[in-house]
Specification:
- 38% of the residues lie in helices and 17% in strands.
- The longest helix has 18 residues.
- The protein is α/β, with parallel strands linked by helices and 408 residues long.
- The radius of gyration is 22 Å and the shape is globular.
- Helix 2 runs parallel beside helix 3, helix 6 packs across helix 8 and helix 14 crosses helix 15.
- The protein folds into 2 domains: 199 residues, P-loop containing nucleotide triphosphate hydrolases (Rossmann fold, 3-Layer(aba) Sandwich), CATH 3.40.50; 192 residues, Rossmann fold (3-Layer(aba) Sandwich).
- Bound molecules: adenosine monophosphate (AMP).
């Protein structure tokens, strides 16, 4: 399959070349023809699947170059807005479109300037976009294509009332594309209210990042987590590591502990200024820091290639977050590792994760580590049939040591 055969015009094929893509990913293959045809699309896809280009490329093909806002992408986080904006800017060099990225946490002036010059594509987080609209800096009445990116996350973060207000500012006669990693009943309700006869496209199971991730559990007591992490990072040759904690405070604390051990690292979370977050991300992307400690909200959608390891210092609240987290590694077909520290308190969430993945995660110990008393999950526990059709097609392979999901 080639991008050419999906119906993209020559100038968009130039964009594809500028982005460095050779062949479309499954979500691109499925979504692009529908988007070009003007149909509403629901895409069930995580980050890492190529979903951004799946909506950016055909959207640019559909809108004129007239410095009027014709397409709007709404994202839950600043980082995701920046990332989508980067793809859109790279892609629009060949098409001559103009792109504005509008998000909070930074000054208004550059955003005013950009909007006043006239742009065809706006990528925005909900709050600042509404703010700009109230200030009469952005006119959304000519929007032809609306993209709701990471809709499940926007719902989780309580942005839906804002998004609904934004939708109310747009023409009814428009095309709407909605992307979501999960299809909860809330998301389905949103689809019903905001989209018209959408086609649903899904990444094929083989494209789900979880398949390429080696997962392991490290049972440990809460008290020993810091030491275990520090020793793990000192002992093992992990390259670029994303560590997840439950709270901002814990992210800061873990970063401090690691720094004391001489591990180069930074913490990134919502309390940090945007400039600080961006710098931490850039340092990590460019390999100046080896470890990034993050909370779910900011980490979601971070597009850093070649993350070698994801470490769940704290297990997430639910299986969806687990999947998002481990999807940060093994992006675009690469393989990666995910290590989860589990304590006695995590057994319920572990059961939910394994049930959703239909997969039993193997247990490992760090050699030579002096473990306190801890709860070790039963190695013979069976994952029950999966309750949600999120990742179909995977069966659990149980070999020695690490297990991997194998395809049927
Ligand atoms: P996304 O899911 O949009 O966040 O994309 C994940 C990563 O895959 C990004 O680093 C993209 O640059 C990369 N990517 C997207 N589409 C392709 C493609 N067709 N070929 C190779 N890499 C791609």
């Amino acid at each position: 399959m080639t991008f050419d055969s999906l119906g993209l015009e020559p100038r968009l094929l130039e964009s594809v070349a500028a982005l460095g893509y050779e062949a479309p990913t499954p979500i691109q293959e499925q979504a692009i023809p529908h988007v070009l045809a003007g149909t509403d699309v629901v895409g069930c896809a995580q980050t890492g699947t190529g979903k951004t280009a799946a909506f950016v490329l055909p959207t640019l093909q559909r809108i004129p170059n007239d410095r009027v806002v014709r397409a709007l992408v709404v994202t839950p986080t600043r980082e995701l807005a920046v990332q989508v904006g980067e793809v859109a800017m790279e892609a629009s060099r060949a098409t001559g479109h103009h792109v504005a990225v509008i998000h909070g946490g930074v000054g208004y002036d550059p955003q005013f300037k950009k909007l006043r010059k006239g742009v065809e594509l706006v990528v925005a987080t909900p709050g600042r976009l509404l703010d700009m609209h109230e200030r009469k800096e952005v006119d959304l009445r000519q929007v032809e294509v609306l993209v709701l990116d990471e809709a499940d996350r926007m719902l989780d973060m309580g942005f839906w009332p804002d998004v609904r207000r934004i939708i109310g500012l747009l023409p009814e006669d428009r095309q709407t594309l909605l992307f979501s990693a999960t299809m909860s009943s809330d998301v389905t309700r949103v689809v019903r209210s905001a989209l018209r006869d959408p086609v649903q496209v899904e990444t094929s199971p083989s494209a789900t990042p979880v398949e390429n991730v080696d997962q392991a559990l490290y049972p440990v007591s809460e008290m020993q987590k810091n030491r275990l992490l520090a020793e793990l990072l000192v002992q093992k040759d992990f390259d670029r590591v994303l560590v997840f904690t439950r709270t901002k405070e814990r992210a800061d604390r873990v970063a401090r502990v690691l720094e004391k051990q001489g591990v180069s690292c930074a913490a990134i979370h919502g309390d940090r200024k945007q400039a600080h977050r961006q710098r931490a991300l850039d340092d990590f992307k460019e390999g100046r820091t080896r470890v990034l400690v993050a909370t779910d909200v900011v980490a979601r959608g971070i597009d850093v290639e070649e993350i070698s390891h994801v470490i769940n210092f704290d297990m997430p609240n639910g299986p969806e977050d687990y999947v998002h987290r481990i999807g940060r590694t093994a992006r675009a077909g690469a393989s990666g590792d995910a290590i989860s520290f589990v304590t006695a308190q995590d057994m319920d969430v572990l059961r939910d994760v394994e049930r959703m993945l239909d997969y039993v995660i193997s247990t490992e110990d760090l050699e030579g580590f002096d473990y306190d008393k801890r709860l070790i999950p039963d190695p013979d526990r069976e994952a029950r049939p999966k309750a949600r059709p999120v990742f179909s097609g995977g069966v659990m392979g149980r070999g020695r040591g690490r297990t991997r999901i194998m395809r049927r």
